Amino acid sequence: MPDRHDLPAGFRWGVSTAAYQIEGAVDEDGRGPSVWDAFCARPGAVKNGDSGRTACDHYHRWPEDIALMRELGLDTYRFSLAWTRVQPTGRGPANPAGLDFYDRLVDGLLEAGITPLPTLFHWDLPQALEDGGGWLHRDTAHRFAAYAALAADRLGDRVPAWITLNEPFVHLVYGYALGIHAPGRALMLDAMPAAHHQLLGHGLAAAELRARGLDVLIANNLTPVRPATDSPADRAAADAYDTLHNRLFTDPLLLGRYPDLTAYGLGPDPDLGGAVRDGDLTLIHAPGLDGLGVNYYNPTRIAAPTDPGLPFAEAPIEGVPRTHFGWPVVPEGLPELLHTLQARYGTALPPITITENGCSTDAALDDAFRIDYLTAHLDALARATTAGIDVRGYCAWSLLDNFEWAEGYSQRFGLVHVDFATQQRTPRASFAWYRDLIAAHRAGNQA
Ligand code: IFM
N or C: which end of the chain has fewer CB within 10 A? Predict the structure, then answer.
């Protein structure tokens, strides 16, 4: 049975983070407010009233964090740029001091032998753009492309590949449909224009990146969807959920069309609340993708709806371990998902990078749970690559304990423990495990 040591030669090892979750320094060097600054200020929005105001203070401690990455022996560091450092209001000329930070970070990474893999948007929209409608408003897509161009102009000489958006599905549903993430809008299906405008922003930004000779990826949260039973009603509900979670973003990107959203009352050829205009799907599809980022955490079990407003209901997954967050641990869901993508998209599927995978644990340094979690997922991934799925790399979520959005600092995903009172970083047992795995895999492939 293949295991993690059988991942292909040249496989690239990494970790992932995101700007608002680690940087802190929200008022420094001209950074403007983002939707997450505003959301955290709303009473009751984030557990314990936490915010990313200081987070891991990575803005000042990045040399120490790069030293940790160097010790891990990483090939890749996936991080995100805070749009409001580059453009404090989301429009207009670049703020040089904001770009200087990423310039230093990129140089530091390269000096440590680590390839920077930036994400342009990991949910921290400039508040000024949100005030004008945010992703519900078409102009935000054009603003995003202009920001991408500014970032690429400054960093593109050293950064070969860029991820446009992180998890547009989660941003759509949590941020615009349910309101449990910033910007905190609870619009349910009226949120659909925010799906289309994110994709349009991706397409326009991708064209800017391509014009500069840069590679383009997008990262989404994907999940294998399992019907709760074999009944026709549960299977239909699972199909409906799969369409929303997995196909709403991936079909336009890879096939140039939206999936049939009849189950949501939006029709077989949906215009997403009137947002889709002639030529948009070409703009989204035409730039092509050099890679698909897959963020995998768990499968989803779906039953027939109990709430008449939605065509599905989530059912619990029983009999498996659970992370500190309560998420089910199902490593075989990862190859299941990758085989589904392969079957669904065939030759349209670009090479895959696992851009996030990991678990939250308690604060302990001895995180055997995380080691078991990562081992099982990487073993499962190796079964998929051995079966012919083209996966080029893996980024563990996350390097550091960090600000876990609405959960504040209560969920710790780090290979490295962070004491948020002192900012002391202490590598956990999983850190040494990951370092040794990377070294062993590399040595095995050099032999
Ligand atoms: O922390 C998040 C990250 O920002 C996006 N993907 C899932 C992670 C864990 O919830």
Answer: C
Q: Which residues, including other chains, have CB under 8 Å from residue 437's CB and lie 6 or more apart?
A: 4, 378
332 is catalytic: no
By most ligand atoms within 8 Å of CB, the mutation choice from 46, 356, 409 for ligand 1 is 356
Whole-angstrom distance, CA of residue 164 vs CA of residue 181: 20
Q: What is the dihedral of CA 31, 182, 405, 397, to 10 degrees?
A: -80
Question: Separation of 18 CA from ligand 1 center, angstroms?
Answer: 9
Residue 167 Cα to ligand 1 midpoint, Å, equals: 9
Whether the predicted model's global pTM rises above the 0.85 cut: yes
Q: What is the C-alpha end-to-end distance of the chain, expressed in Å? A: 21
pLDDT number for residue 247: 98
Strands (E), 140-210: 161-166
77, containing H or E segment: strand 76-80
CA of 173 to the centre of ligand 1 (A): 14
In this structure, are residues 53 and 411 in contact, taking their beta carbons and an 8 Å threshold? no
Over 80: is that where the pLDDT of 447 sits?
Answer: no
Q: Whose CA is nearest to atom 10 of ligand 1?
A: 404
Span 24-40, average pLDDT: 98
Q: Does 307 score more than 90 pLDDT? A: no
Q: Is the CB of 336 under 6 A from ligand 1?
A: no
Domain 4-446 has CATH 3.20.20.80: yes
d(CA 5, CA 437) in angstroms, rounded, equals 8
Exposure of 396 by Cβ count < 10 A (0-12 exposed, 13-18 middle, 19+ buried)?
A: buried
